[in-house]
Amino acid sequence: MELFMKLFQSDIGLLSLFTIAFVIVMAFYLVGWVKKQADKEEAEM
Question: Scanning 7, 15, 29, 41, which has its CA 20 to 30 A from the CA of 22?
Fold first, then answer.
């Protein structure tokens, strides 16, 4: 429980949480973009 208190109350913890969330969102976006590009390229062939 102390770990979560440090994560949500300290500046570094909040920055780390934001960074982790940003990387996860970026990963979902990139997977969707790559799938869309692959489908588009496949349709052109």
Answer: 41
